[in-house]
Amino acid sequence: MTTSPTSSPTASPARRAARRGRRRHRRSAAALAVLAALAACAGPPRNGSGTPFDLSAATPRPKGDIDSFTWALYAEPPTLDYTVAFDYPQNMVLSNVCESLLRWTPELTTAPGLARRTTHPDPTTWVYDLRAGVRFHSGGTMGADDVVYSLERQRDPDNAAAWAQVFQNVTSVRRTGPLQVTVRLKKPDSQFPQYMASAAGVVASKAGVEAAGKDYGTSGGLACTGPFELGTWHKGQSIELDRFDGYWGRRAKSGKVVFRFLPDASARTNALLSGEADGGYLIPTESYDRLRGSGVGKLYFGEGLSTVNVAVTNLRGALGDLRVRRALSLALDRSGFVQVGLGGAGTPTGSPTTRATWAGAPERTRKRAFAGLRPGRPDIARAKALVKKAGATGRTLTVATSSIGQDVSLLATAVQDAGTRIGLDIRLKSIAPNAFTALFTDPGARKGIDMFPLTYYGSITDPLDVLTNFRSGAYLNFAGHRDPVYDRLVDRATTLDDPRERLAVEARLQRRAARQLPWIPVAEWPTAVFLNDRITGAPTSISYMYHPWAADVGAAR
């Protein structure tokens, strides 16, 4: 989800574009039908044991240090300012440079970070005792003033911080000792302390950020504390990170990391196969089989906490009628999309959250949360009847698509195919990968767009991380969906420190969101990472978004 857009999609001109759209429409529907047929014959990808993909807890530990390694990145970050680090490209880089008060581990648990200890003396107070002697890349030693300044930047409305919602209940962030910061809340907030392990809890040097001014995040250093510091940023080409020898923690195994921007999925795959890039996350799904059989490395799957969805961005048109949203959900061929769009490495779902986020819930609560949410085969007749009752037959809807990867382009095509079958006129609007990321943060970029493919990754292992997005006014509530009952349930769950009580309320939220479809859930998707034979050590889980994963990468032999 990012900062300002690199470009914004514009509305299509009328008649000529409509004719072109209809031609594209027919070709896309035919293409999906062919792909679905191929998938039905081939089945899901298989590993050496002949079973579907397996989740790996980790990659092998390195046998030594390396001078450098190169990583494939599908888009260039528009900025590395931690306050707007809300998408894969930014966080994949930033997690190795800037650190938070707490740390998300590869096992997706929370551990001490820049705060060595956290205490909770009363329901509305959190106290963070900081590590001593932590050095900034820009010079100087971390103190309480830096933490206060960093968290206050997230709260400053002039910054348009992507993480501002995390701080909505915060009344004050104060220095209560040279190495102690106390955060006071308006009311109990079970989510706030968990987010201190994400980019919301990043600490940067007050002096360093102020010295950079408006250029912070786009040029110069980041004034953070991580195992790597920002090196040379070759705009349009790559970002280099250099090992920070003054790091307080375990020394990074590589002296340098080079992130190469490779928006084209084929180019990204070829770079991995040729050794031009040593590894990468977010592997193009159409490349799974090629990489598996390449003999130059290994493709791993790990826990992702990720769901693939169709985000609804406009409720003023046909999608404002719940019957139309339900019709699209009923008509979607989720299994076909998983086989082709996700290379078989996924699970169809009607749930806005993954099952893994409910690992701490009692079995009874988990059953309630997922009751009735297992999707069946597409029900075209029922979906078509709903569209007709809504008076939406023939209505036009625009879906954004991009060449980021097959998961995005084929989901957009699957939506187009489903809409066609039930009487809707679905147009596809192609957006460049660097601009596609702006859809998450810039309302202007979503102008003229009714839906777009959205892969949502959990930033904490709590279902409310996803479910709170459908609350009135939430940052990712793109279409402005409103439900006072839902809002009250979110407020209730947020105040509950007891996980069992909170998860019971969250189960009610999940069922309500699944009925109202502010997003249309499609599939659960594991994390994919490819490492060539030269390197190893990268985590297989989604922890790479906030964990300094590159510091663990070293020599495979």
Form type: globular
Q: What is the residue-averaged pLDDT?
A: 89
User: Which sheet architecture does the biggest sheet show?
Assistant: 9 strands, mixed
Low-confidence stretches: 1-52
Q: Tell me how many strands there are.
A: 19
Supply Rg. Answer: 23 Å
Alpha-beta classification: alpha+beta
Task: Give the number of helices.
Answer: 16
Question: Ends: how far apart?
Answer: 37 Å
Report strand %.
Answer: 15-25%
Helix content: 25-40%
Structural commentary:
With 557 residues, the protein is an alpha+beta fold. 29% of the residues lie in helices and 22% in strands. It has 16 helices and 19 strands. The chain has helices at residues 15-42, 88-94, 144-155, 192-195, 206-212, 265-274, 288-292, 322-331, 334-341, 363-370, 380-389, 406-421, 433-436, 464-467, 484-495, 499-516; strands at residues 66-73, 102-104, 110-112, 115-122, 125-130, 170-177, 180-185, 228-234, 238-243, 254-261, 279-281, 297-312, 347-348, 396-401, 425-430, 451-457, 519-532, 535-536, 554-555. α1 (15-42) crosses α9 (334-341) and α10 (363-370) runs parallel beside α16. The longest helix is centred in the N-terminal third of the chain and has 28 residues, at 15-42. The two termini are 37 Å apart.
